[in-house]
Design brief:
The complex is a heterodimer.
Chain A lengths: L22 H26 L3 H26 L17 H25 L3 H27 L4 H4 L5 H20 L6 H25 L4 H4 L1 H24 L3 H31 L1 H19 L3
Chain B lengths: L21 H4 L9 E6 L8 H10 L25 E11 L34 E3 L4 E11 L7 H5 L5 E3 L5 E3 L10 H4 L6 E2 L6 E2 L5 H5 L5 H5 L5 E5 H17 L6 E3 L12 E5 L19 H32 L1
Parallel strand pairs in B: 1-11
Antiparallel strand pairs in B: 1-9, 2-4, 3-4, 5-6, 7-8, 10-11
The chains are: A mainly alpha, B alpha+beta.
Bound molecules: iron/sulfur cluster.
Iron/sulfur cluster binds next to α3 of chain B.
């Protein structure tokens, strides 16, 4: 890898441009989308297992989250009326176009599932909507990883293989946290298991991403992103441990839920901040590209 | 300069392979020739006529009068209201070797005549240089940067509204009445070209003077360039001319000359605006091996699908285990 000493740049200026997105809007959107999507999956599983109260709470959480997430996206556009342009075309090459259509379908379906659960009306349609939201949920939770990685931002694109798993794990941990926080303690069995699986998945993907990123992984360790990622690690581990050990203790369940949700927030804001930092420092653009050229050169050499 | 030339693994200066035809790929039945810019930085004098002409023709907002403090370059970078940017590099280099073409002032000579397609090459060496500490000299490099009008353009790929589109000339243009200010194109561009205007959020960049092209005129920057550092024309002709210019410079001993963005095999399928540089690309603020991020999009979707399935599996397995426990309890 290129060391900083041999690395050249134009007066240290960035080569790629960091997105002008507000962290609260877009990292917040990543978190809320994950909470909503994974929440829909968990809600369907809980409903099938008879944990109706937690399922209903998650359905309401999902529709609230996706509503807030959409509001965050629209807020980031500056001029809200422009949002309709998002649905002008269907573009498979644009994760944002794919995501907009996904939300346009998922939002109403999740809304119907929640409405039926809360009012007790149209249970058949409610069950169909619950199933539909559970099928779309994983896509809502993971497509945001593709949205971030389909850019020239070194920390995001460099981890494009690992980011979807990181986001899926973080989403599952968050949704499990919401279930532990909102559901009655008699219904926490499934969520306690998924909390641990989500935390494990997130941790494994985080490790893999750092290994893949090499020197660019410094952006996940340093500065604002570093603080957020360390907080995420502590919060998620604490939440998972509490979930594992809480049994039917309501207080421990609430503590686990809050820690898991906060951990997921920190993960998304941490990944977001690392991306911005990696775009701003040209060494993270030049370094991996130089390493790639050196590797290509070595493999193309005749002997 | 680092020892590994930018494209050591790729032959530079060979007659260009077939020019990709993005206009036809985008569905134009019988498009005109793909046009582009060849910016020969070896003859750039840093006058910034291109920057001014671009601002004037396109009625771009002013940037204010701030001084960058880093060099004579107070423009600093391409952006929403800066569609041509003249980079100005001042660095200390070892003195030119005695056998090089050197004028009595101790400066290496560089012929300023660009190669016109089919014309005679008249090349010499010639960065403008002054005296530095013993054994070294100060070298100036100037280069007018611009949107590359990529064959595989990330900005266009990721635009969710269709505001960015491919023109019949093979260039990439934003329709400002369609752009909704999502800003996705900004981090997608591997060259850091396109940018949102802070006051209204929409994204702007070089159009290669789409309006002028439609009227059969050349872009304002190329028209204004007094040294023909910025050459405009059909891309295949520009590539042939650039290859001749590169050969001439190499023959004249300017071994550091290299083309950038001319190779249809590169990570963006070749640029509609390519360059002749006298140092590594990153010295000018250009990425050494840019790639269009959407190239990896199928793989990203596969991983996202696998991650989504893993999520379903984790919840399913947890629910099944809980149900089994309940059943056996
Ligand atoms: S250089 Fe950037 S803005 Fe220009 S066409 Fe390529 S991706 Fe788009």
């Amino acid at each position: 890898m290129v060391e900083r000493a041999d690395f050249e740049s134009y007066y240290g200026r960035p080569i790629v441009k960091a997105p002008a997105w507000e962290a609260t809007d877009i990292a917040g959107y990543f978190f809320l989308g994950g909470l909503a999507g994974a929440g829909s999956v968990l809600a369907a599983a809980l409903q099938a297992g008879g944990a109706h109260r937690t399922a209903a709470a998650l359905k309401v959480t999902s529709v609230g989250s996706v509503g807030l997430a959409t509001a965050a996206l629209i807020h980031d556009l500056g001029v809200p009326s422009r949002f309709t342009h998002m649905l002008r075309v269907v573009k498979p090459t644009s994760p944002m176009s794919v995501g907009s259509w996904l939300l346009a379908v998922y939002g109403p379906v999740a809304g119907a599932a929640a409405a039926s659960a809360v009012t007790g009306r149209a249970p058949r349609a409610g069950a169909v909507a619950t199933g539909g939201a559970a099928v779309l949920g994983p896509a809502v939770a993971t497509y945001t990883a593709v949205l971030a990685s389909d850019t020239a931002v070194p920390a995001w694109h460099g981890a494009h293989r690992e980011l979807p798993y990181l986001f899926a794990g973080s989403a599952l941990a968050a949704a499990s946290g919401a279930a532990l926080l909102l559901g009655p303690s008699a219904e926490t069995g499934v969520a306690r298991a998924t909390a641990v699986l989500g935390a494990l998945g997130e941790t494994a993907a985080d490790h893999a991403a750092r290994r893949r990123l090499g020197p660019v992984a410094a952006t996940l360790r340093e500065g604002r992103a570093g603080g957020l990622m360390r907080s995420a690690r502590v919060l998620t581990a604490t939440g998972a441990a509490l979930a594992l050990l809480s049994g039917r203790s309501r207080a421990a369940g609430v503590g686990a839920g809050v820690a898991l949700l906060a951990g997921s927030v920190c993960t998304r804001f941490g990944v977001f901040a690392a991306g911005i930092a990696s775009a701003r420092d040209p060494v993270h653009t030049v370094g991996p590209q130089r390493a790639r050229l050196a590797a290509d050169g070595a493999s193309a050499a005749p002997d | 300069m680092s020892s590994a030339a930018a494209g050591a693994h790729r032959p530079h200066g060979e007659p260009a392979a077939e020019v990709p035809d993005p206009a036809s790929d985008s569905g134009y039945p019988d498009p005109p020739d793909r046009v582009g810019f060849f910016t020969d930085t070896s003859v750039c004098i840093g006058c910034k006529a291109c920057e001014v002409a671009c601002k004037e023709w396109n009625a771009l907002p002013a940037d204010g009068f701030s001084l960058s403090g880093m060099s004579y370059d107070n423009t600093e970078a391409l952006g929403a209201s800066t569609w041509r940017h003249v980079a100005f590099v001042e660095r200390q280099v070892p003195a030119a070797p005695a056998d090089g073409a050197v004028d009595p002032g101790g400066r290496p000579l560089l012929g300023l005549t660009p190669v016109v397609p089919g014309g005679e090459a008249d090349a010499g060496a010639g960065t403008d240089a002054g005296a530095g500490p013993a054994g070294s000299e100060i070298r100036w490099l100037m280069s007018s940067d611009v949107c590359k009008h990529c064959t595989h353009a990330a900005c266009l790929d990721v635009c969710p509204t269709g505001a960015l589109f491919r023109t019949e000339f093979g260039t990439v243009v934003v329709q400002d009445d369609i752009c909704n200010g999502c800003g996705y194109c900004v981090p997608a561009c591997p060259y850091g070209v396109i940018e949102q205007r802070p006051d209204d959020g929409r994204a702007f960049k070089c159009t290669m003077c789409y309006d002028r092209l439609g009227a059969g005129m050349e872009p304002a920057c190329a028209k204004a360039c007094p040294t023909e550092s910025i050459q405009f024309g059909p891309l295949d002709e520009l590539r042939a001319g650039a290859a001749r210019r590169l050969d001439a410079l190499h023959e004249a001993g300017v071994s550091e000359a290299r083309l950038y963005g001319h190779d249809p095999e590169d990570g963006v399928g070749g640029d509609g605006a390519f360059f002749l540089l006298l140092d590594e690309p990153e010295v000018y603020g250009l990425p050494p091996d840019p790639r269009v991020p959407t190239r990896d999009l199928p793989r990203m979707w596969r991983h996202a699908a696998a991650a989504g399935l893993a999520l379903l599996g984790a919840v399913g397995a947890s629910a099944a285990t809980a149900a089994r426990r309940k059943g056996s309890a």
